[in-house]
Amino acid sequence: MPKVLISGRGGSGKSTVVSLLAQRLKRNGNKILVVDSDESNLCLNKILGINKSKDTLMGNLGGKKLIRDKLMEVVQKGESNLNIFDEMSLDNLSEEYVSWNDNLGFLEIGKIEHSMEGCACPMGALARDFFNHIKVNKDEWILIDTEAGIEHFGRGLIEGVDFIVTIVDPSEDAILLANKAFDLSLEDNKTFGLILNKVDRASEKIIKNKLNPNISIIGTIDYSPDIAMLNLKGDSIDSILVNGLNDVINYIN
Ligand SMILES: Nc1ncnc2c1ncn2[C@@H]1O[C@H](COP(=O)(O)OP(=O)(O)OP(=O)(O)O)[C@@H](O)[C@H]1O
Ligand SMILES: [Mg+2]
Q: Which chain positions lie within coiled-coil regions (predicted)?
């Protein structure tokens, strides 16, 4: 079953769509791990309606300095993969860094914690290694929320991923980034689909005219004041039902 990476410009709705898909998959009887690979934003667990675990993956493995040192060793050998994990499955991940709510798990790769702590490359390398080694069985999904933009393509996060979804909200930047993400996904032979978010019929038409016509639009989510209000309050969007999510899931699968 798929490991799906969700990308898009800042604020386009990546974390919202990850949460909507995760809740829908859970209702459909799947086991899902949501991975937060955004090193800045802090509230994906609230949108999902799940507690955080005790630690991030990076914290559990000894912290950023240790991972950075390992990464430096790897780079000095002329390699780029950390290779610190053996093959893993959803069943043998520690609850020290994964919190579970029935069949929905939540894991944070690592967060920026201190001023002047250095770049986020160790988080990227750790995430890449994790996705390269985690295996998903039938009826299991991994949904990966990412930081804004396309840095995760450069960092190689997509290496172990099966499907890229880019979210486009009504903005020129979102459209340009989606066209770029499509090209980058093709470079790596990854399947690609696009979800329009926060649209109405007028903005949907303009976006479609500007997108690369070879891109598959796999879903459309209208602007919803309820989603925006729940986010403002810091509440879960568990109660929000969006039409067409099962079609998105069937397409990806
Ligand atoms: N369909 C929608 N209708 C109304 N508001 C929405 C919709 N989707 C997302 N939002 C709102 O837009 C804002 C940004 O959404 P979200 O945090 O999911 O974006 P993001 O792409 O993850 O942002 P970031 O790049 O900062 O990680 C939030 O306030 C969210 O509630
Ligand atoms: Mg986000």
A: none
